[in-house]
Structure formats: structure tokens, C-alpha cells
Write a structure and sequence with these properties.
This protein is an all-alpha fold and 48 residues long. Helix content is 92%, strand content 0%.
Length: 48
Amino acid sequence: MNNSLLIYDHSNGVIMIAVFALVCVILVGVLVNFMTSGKKKNDNNETN
């Protein structure tokens, strides 16, 4: 029974969700950074 109680420990779940959310935010930030830098390079090439 103790093992099943550890699965439902809220502090562990909150930590795991926070880490997952942090990784998602970092990945989205990297994607947005690549997209904006790519658009800036394309705009500069088009204007020149």
C-alpha cells in the first residue's frame, strides 16, 4: 500500500509537471527564436 501512496504524492506530481512545463516553454522559445531569426534573414535578403 505504501508504494501506491507514493504514486499519488502531490508534491512529486507538482514537481514533475513543473519540469515538464519548463521544458515545453524552453522548446517553444527556441522554436520562436529560430522562426523570427529566419524571417529577419529572409526580409534582409528581400530588401537587399
